[in-house]
Task: inverse folding
């Protein structure tokens, strides 16, 4: 008899705990990737927060500075961002040898995604340009090999000129 009472009590406890639990009807939240200074240009890279900080790092670490200008909602910037982030050679070179900064601009760049290489004296290297004569510092997704080559040139110039 005691066994029967304990069994009934166990069933009642189990039922009451199941009834007392709230139903899980809350909508599923989609996973959000935390926003970093990279803004998707290379989340594993260390990005400077400001131009002043980037110049300081460039001087103190004796590394060239690469500045990327882009517009968050621009389809041209989005396609270049994807190509830049997926290019393993560019990501490795940027990680190992560069101080990098990306700046969000507030006006449309008209199919242009400029990247420039200021030297430690704060002068933009006019001898390291993209392939467009009317947009000297602009790159497109198809220009990743040229961008990589220009990154290597900036690194070489910094090492030989200092």
Result:
């Amino acid at each position: 008899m005691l066994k029967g009472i304990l069994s009934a009590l166990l069933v009642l406890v189990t039922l009451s705990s199941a009834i007392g639990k709230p139903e899980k009807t809350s909508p599923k939240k989609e996973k959000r990737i935390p926003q970093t200074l990279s803004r998707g240009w290379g989340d594993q890279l260390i990005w400077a927060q400001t131009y002043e900080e980037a110049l300081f790092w460039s001087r103190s670490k004796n590394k060239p500075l690469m500045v990327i200008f882009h517009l968050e909602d621009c389809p041209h910037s989005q396609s270049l961002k994807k190509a830049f982030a997926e290019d393993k050679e560019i990501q490795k070179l940027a990680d190992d040898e560069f101080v990098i900064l990306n700046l969000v601009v507030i006006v449309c760049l008209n199919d242009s995604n400029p990247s420039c290489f200021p030297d430690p004296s704060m002068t933009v290297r006019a001898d390291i340009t993209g392939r467009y004569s009317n947009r000297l510092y602009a790159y497109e997704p198809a220009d990743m090999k040229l961008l990589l080559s220009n990154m290597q040139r900036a690194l070489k110039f910094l090492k030989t000129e200092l």
